[in-house]
Structures are given as structure tokens and as C-alpha cells.
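Long-time lurker. I teach an intro course on protein structure, and each term I like to show students one example going from raw sequence to a predicted 3D structure in C-alpha cell notation. This year I'd like something fresh instead of my usual example. Would anyone be willing to generate the C-alpha cells for the chain below so I can use it in lecture? Attribution to the forum is fine with me.
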Amino acid sequence: MMANFNDTLVYTLIITLFGMGIVFIVLVALQYILKSMKLVFYKEKKEGAEVTQVPAIKPVETAMPQRDIAAASEGDELIAVITAAVISCLGGNSNIVVRNIRRVDDRTPVWGKVSRTEQMANRF
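-- Reply from a regular --
Happy to contribute to a lecture. Here you go:
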């Protein structure tokens, strides 16, 4: 015999609520597990942590024409700034030396550049 509509509706609601309850309980358990893992494994850095000193770069004297010295010093400054930015991003405890910077061809299509620009503009 065919079950009536009310019995079928009641059974589907019970199964739905039971499934949603299990999912809710599992998500709450995951939340507490992640919080406990953060307490166990996360080491917070101190506010007054050591400040690493970056040695000053001594300019090398060369026999170059005056206009080339200005261009070379701009290149050296750019290398120093990029090196400082990379070291800063890595936490300051790095022995990275940037010796050369060269431009890489950008093969991104125009629509890709436009979408990146829009994504960056829409961030808050």
C-alpha cells in the first residue's frame, strides 16, 4: 500500500533535521578543535622582538661618465629597495642578496590585466 503524503512529509522532515543537526554538531566540534590547535601550536611573537640591523651598502667607486653614475646609482637604489622589501616580507632573518634585476616579458592578455586591476580596485 502507498503511504499517504503526511507520513512521507513527516519522515523527510525528520531525516532533514537529523542530517542538519549532525552537520551542525560536526562544525562546532571542528571549531573547537581548531581553537585548541591554535593554542597548542601557535607561538605569538613578542611586541619588542629583536630588531635586525641591515649593514650599510658601501658604494663602489668606478671611473664612469657623470650621466652613467646617476643611472647606476638609481639602479643600485632600486636593488636595495627590492632587497629590503623581500627581507621584510620574509621576517627579516634572511641572507638574500639581490645582484641583478631584469624585466620579464608579460604575456598576460589584455582581459587578464583588466580583470586583475578591477579585482585590486574592489578590495577593501
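Some talking points for your students: The first helix runs from residue 5 to 41. The chain has two domains: 1-40, 66-118.
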